[in-house]
Amino acid sequence: MNNTIELLTEYSLKPNKALGQNFLIDEEAIDRIVSLAAEAGLPVLEIGPGLGALTFPLAGTGVKLAAVELDKALSEILAERLPENASVINRDFLKADLGNIHSLLGGGELTAIGNLPYYITSDIMMRLITSGLPIRRMVIMTQREAADRFTARPGDRNYVPLSVLSQRYFTVTAAFDLSPASYRPQPEVASRVTVFDRNGIGYDESFPRFLKCAFAMRRKTLANNLAALGVSRAEAAALIEKAGLSPSVRAEALGVDTLAGLCRSALETHAGNQDAR
Hints:
Blueprint: H1 3-10, E1 23-24, H2 27-38, E2 44-47, H3 55-60, E3 65-69, H4 72-81, E4 86-90, H5 98-104, E5 110-115, H6 121-130, E6 135-143, H7 144-151, H8 161-169, E7 170-178, E8 183-184, E9 191-198, H9 207-214, H10 222-225, H11 233-242, H12 256-276
Parallel strand pairs: 2-3, 2-5, 3-4, 5-6
Antiparallel strand pairs: 1-8, 6-9, 7-9
Helix pairs in contact: 6-8, 8-12, 11-12
């Protein structure tokens, strides 16, 4: 019997709908995900381990593992059964002390994995990408609609700041899809496993804020949206013209590298304004 099904039965557990709990039970998918996550032999940070469908086989490879689980009952079950190389942290990942977790995992490069609820996918992914943690690889399961954002291209309806940040710092690959039957209880939609491999580009702390402003109002031009960064309309127009772009261009039409270049130019302009005061 699948370990997750066994534990659900043994502890008479009912998945918490409010927490978006859908437990992975597909053995073939579990093997593929564990293989992807353990490939580099790095310590693993797991978000939302649930009943340990991935946690137990990952811990069995011998890697150091820290699993962050919000549900107290599930955390206690995992803590009782996991080997010494695995730790369980009963905490909301969005509020967890990532510095402490990083230290617990040895302080070096790591792999991150997670089976993420749809309603909080973007928040968790933004925290992972902007955390400053030296994450070499991420193996992430989400509803397919959410996964589409990671690989969306300029002009796509779901091309958002998360798309840009994902593709700026990682090579993003849609690994494989999972049907609702891969989970218990079954979700209403299909899911996707996406792999993020660090591409070596250094993280720019200013880029998320730039993107938030640039995409703030999709009907407004980029020049208008950049005012929130302390750049005047005329200065923004000059930056856009210098980049060889149309004055009426919008952020969602621009590629990742173009947006990164505009971010650098806007910050230099803003810094110059500050120095002139």
